[in-house]
Design goal:
single chain; 12 helices; 303 residues; flat; mainly alpha
């Protein structure tokens, strides 16, 4: 198992490195620079700023300098406001993390419950209602749902302000964030549960007179969780780092909205930092989910 973990860690490092390379060179391949839109700056000032942040050097040299600083834990400073990137992430990530963890917890728990219920009551009214709603929320983009929630509950009804840091006002962003993954997990859990219920060991347990509740919770549900865990890995990392669109709609000061503003402002260092941060969370979440397979199904062996 430790050999497997070491191999996955090495692959994770390689993955993050490739993402750094691709992001950095594609970002610099776009014509222009982060200071070109600043109309109040003279050409001499722009050249001085480019020299200050090493933007006047060849792209490959810029990359080597960036990676050297990154290996020392230095993400640099924002090219737009001069703040340390580490400070920006430490301020914005807890907001995204809180929203994301709440949304992903709701999505996984209720998605699994609704999916299992739909499988156990197949072709009955609860199954049809659950399938209809899960299909609806799967088809509705998050930015459409976020806009509708904002329009109805904030503007028309005035029940919830657009954004505030109090507990109550996390409701709308959490709903917008968890709607799609909960619908997807519901469909996934239903399919997995139906497949588990058709297996021979379930029929054997029924023939032996095992209680229905024990069959469902100990055998069928446990084995149907593997596809849900597979989906949960990247989804957890994505939601925790914050949906860029949802955070922008609700003006949430999370890391997702910071990423959007960094792209529009051509803030190279911020783009690189948030991309690396997201990629690292992705590979770590996937590794953790792979290790959870062993907990759910002890028969799984790691090569």
């Amino acid at each position: 198992m430790w050999k497997y973990i070491l191999k996955r860690v090495l692959l994770a490092i390689l993955t993050v490195l490739l993402i750094c390379i691709i992001t950095f060179f594609l970002m610099n391949a776009i014509p222009g620079g982060p200071f070109n839109k600043e109309k109040a700056l003279s050409q001499a000032t722009i050249e001085a700023l480019n020299a200050r942040y090493n933007l006047d050097k060849p792209v490959f040299t810029q990359f080597l300098l960036y990676m050297k600083n990154l290996l020392h834990g230095d993400f640099g400073v924002s090219l737009k406001n001069g703040r340390e990137i580490k400070d920006i992430i430490s301020d914005s990530f807890p907001i995204s993390c809180r929203l994301g963890l709440t949304a992903v917890t709701i999505a996984l728990i209720f998605g699994t419950i609704f999916g299992s219920l739909a499988a156990l009551m197949r072709n009955k009214l609860p199954d049809r209602i659950i399938v209809f709603l899960s299909t609806l929320f799967t088809a509705v983009p998050s930015f459409v749902l976020a806009t509708l929630l904002l329009l109805v509950f904030s503007i028309e009804l005035g029940w919830v302000p657009v954004w505030s840091a109090t507990e109550t006002h996390y409701t709308l962003p959490v709903i917008a964030l968890c709607a799609y993954p909960m619908a997807y997990v519901t469909r996934l859990a239903k399919t997995s549960m139906l497949d588990a219920l058709s297996q021979d060991y379930i029929r054997t347990a029924k023939a032996k007179g095992v209680k229905k509740s024990l069959i469902i919770f100990k055998h069928a549900l446990r084995n149907s969780l593997l596809p849900v865990i597979t989906y949960a890995g990247p989804e957890i990392a994505y939601i925790i780092t914050g949906s860029m669109v949802v955070e922008t709609v609700f003006t949430v000061g999370g890391i997702g909205s910071k990423f959007v503003s960094a792209i529009s402002n051509r803030d190279y260092t911020m783009i690189m930092a948030t991309t690396i941060f997201l990629a690292t969370l992705m590979v770590v979440a996937n590794l953790i989910c792979d290790l959870l397979y062993k907990v759910v199904d002890p028969r799984i062996k790691y090569d």
